[in-house]
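User: For a teaching handout, I'd like to show students what a predicted protein-ligand complex looks like in C-alpha cell form. I'll give you the sequence and the SMILES for zinc ion. Please answer with just the structure.
Assistant: Understood, here is the input followed by the structure.
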Amino acid sequence: MPRARTHDAITLALAPPTFLLTQALTGSRDLAWLVTLAMLFSGFLFNPDLDIRSKPYARWGPFRFLWWPYQVLVRHRSQLSHGLLLGTFIRTVYLLIILALLGAVGILLWHALQEQSGSESARQALALLKRWLLSVERRYWLALFFGLWWGSAAHTFADWLGSLWTQTKRLL
Ligand SMILES: [Zn+2]
C-alpha cells in the first residue's frame, strides 16, 4: 500500500490535468476551479484513509474528533471507505450528518443562552442557509461531488496498484 507521501504526490500531480481537462470539457473556469479544489481537498483531507489514524486524519487538527465515530464504524480498507463510489458517498453523507448534529447542538446552546430572540435569529439563519443552498445551480453540486470522488478514487486506484505490485513481486 503506497505511503501517505506517495498519495499526496499523486494528488498534486493530478491537479493541473484535472483543471485543464475540466475547463476544456465544460468551457467553464469556475467549474474547473471547483472540481480541482474539491479534488485536492479530497486527496489531502477527505480520502479513504480517514478510517485509521493517518495523515489525512491528522490534518483535521482540532477537528479530528469528527472522524472518531467513522473510525469505529468503518474497518480499515473496507468497501465502506475504499469502495470506488461507496467510499466518497458514505464519507460525504457521514460528514453532513455530523455537521448537522453539531449545528443542532449549536442552535440548542444558542437557544439556552439567548432565550426568545435567539430562537428567532437561529430560524432566520437556517432559512437563509436553505435559500442559499437551493439557489446553487445543479452543475456546481455535480462538479463538487465529482471533484470529491476523483480525489478519493485516485487514492483507491493507487492502493490497488500498490497491492498488485506487492503481489507480483512476491510471485517473481
Ligand atoms: Zn488507503
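For the handout, you might add this sentence: The chain is about 80% helix and 0% strand.
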